[in-house]
Write the structure tokens for this entry.
Amino acid sequence: MSEKALRLGTRRSKLAMAQSGQVADAVSQVTGRPVELVEITTYGDTSREHLAQIGGTGVFVAALREALARGEVDFAVHSLKDLPTAQPAELVLAAIPEREDPRDVLVARDALKFADLPRGARVGTGSPRRMAQLNAYARAHGLDIETVPIRGNVDTRIGFVHGGELDAVVLAAAGLNRIGRGDEVTDFLSVDTVLPAPGQGALAIECAADRADLVAALAKLDDPHTRAAVTAERSLLAALEAGCSAPVGALADLPPLSAPLERAEPQADRQIVKEMRLRGVVGTTDGSTLVQLSTTGPVPRTHDDAMALGRELATEMLARGAAGLMGERAL
């Protein structure tokens, strides 16, 4: 490969620029080539409507994929939870690097924990998935909260708390960590309380399928455990025929390593593990009804194995009435 700079397509948000910059450095190391960021504005960035109204989180992806198809960029970086589950034949997910912390976190006034929020506390989130699980937890534990739909970047959302409009907001730990604002977290939400979005905390590096040299180079950044986990999670989402903005949570993890996520502790050191557990949840946004199930199987060795794990759990969830809870189905 020549020394010509590789063009990395990225959204313009502070978070997207931060994570794309980190990927750019890693790609430069494995290719020996400079990488330049090409900023692309997506419809999801400019619209002020709620995601469910404008087509779900896929609206953040289309413009990047169009730039790839036109050859304006060589590869693109996405937050994996933003990617629709259907993969275009002309594009390939060349690498899914090791996942950041997948949990949701609370940023609250007065350094409050979720369980210590006052009665009637206003908790902001743009995610029906988070609303469903937060409200269900509150119902089960005698808490009185009001979930408030919000949009905007991290600064805007945290600003609602600092400005007194909200008592707390719920965000992804990975995003705050990537922009160096992890110290603003007041509570890590156990995955037993709130299952993350499928693919949350993971990045996807996508390029044209016919760029064999680039696909091979980018593949050096791939983490097999992360790819297997997020493939199972996204297979569950696809099999539920749910859109990106449906209230579906999923997490595939390796049980011996998962206790820190449940106890809100740092990640444990990697061990040799033989089983993967997949958990899924679907619920009404008011938290009155949840379908939450899990299954455990051998750590998937192939893409098809991971897909099968997701489909298996989705079938069980649909049998328990999950379809009627999602509000919207993918077309």
Summary: DSSP finds eleven helices and 13 strands in the chain. Residues 295 and 313 are 6 Å apart (CA to CA). The longest strand covers residues 275-283.
